[in-house]
Design brief:
single chain, alpha/beta, Rossmann fold, DNA polymerase, domain 1, seven-stranded mixed beta sheet, 7 strands, about 45% helix, globular, binds S-adenosylmethionine
Length: about 300
Amino acid sequence: MVAMIDKTHHVPVLLKEVVDLLNLRPGSCVVDCTLGLAGHSQHIVKHISPNGFLIGIDRDADSLAIAQENLAQYAGHCALMQKDFRYLDNVLDQLAIKEVDAFLFDLGVSSYQLDTPDRGFSIRNNGPLDMRMDRNSFISAYDLINSLSTDEISLILKNFGQERWHRRIADCLVRERVKHPIESTEELKKIILNAVPRQQQHQKIHPATRAFQAFRIAVNRELEALEAALDKCIPYLRDGGRVAVISFHSLEDKIVKDKFHSFSKQGKIRILTKKPLRPTDAEVTDNVRSRSARLRIAERIGKKEIE
Ligand SMILES: C[S@@+](CC[C@H](N)C(=O)[O-])C[C@H]1O[C@@H](n2cnc3c(N)ncnc32)[C@H](O)[C@@H]1O
């Protein structure tokens, strides 16, 4: 029997930890900066009801439409916006919101995006080389892979994928695209497989996994967005308000860790997670995509004295 994939479903990662540690109360104002299908937010709204307010932000219009259905019964208590979270200040200003009790960032892409082949995120299912979270944005993976120089591709693979064979892969991609443009995720996978040394070709994790991550980060300028958003959210946090960030790879986690340390040194926040929280074995068994998740949480302090 063929298993059906429920594309409207995303199992929220570290849900209990997020809900408990965000210190949610009836009446809280919460910004879910990575709404996705509202997996976390469906639980958040229950904790802040009856008079709380949820602002949900996502760059992806398709996800937002599903989230809207999933939150339909709370429609009067939510504002959902299609926006890059790096502009969260614009969203809050537009809603005339001056103070927030909690921000949540659950980074990366959702199961829904990964499992939809025509989005081009998946290494498992063939699709076009797209990888844009916002399908209205101008640059896709196709554009980067078919037009950047060898040096530029190599740098993306090195910096955003920590890919050891970055130069070899970049050389092969540029050589192949002279014959014809590289159009699909399957073609990209094959070229990378042939580019890495033979003994690397039969690893448990596909040799193209790091390159897929790298191109996705480059297409969506993910790391810049995260840095900007962390800077912007702190001033909106109410004294005692909290920010929670779930990251899925060391590049993201390092940004969160460094930003939190810097805000802490400036006396703006107290870090509540000395070490990031990780999912339990039981959660990883139930939801294998949670396996690399790391959650960091911080609390706003001394706002009145400082500002
Ligand atoms: C891991 S999923 C979140 C899943 C969600 N917490 C849930 O339980 O349904 C990450 C979501 O964040 C969105 N996203 C990633 N970076 C973004 C950014 N810079 N601005 C807005 N949305 C972003 C993606 O489109 C994706 O829908």
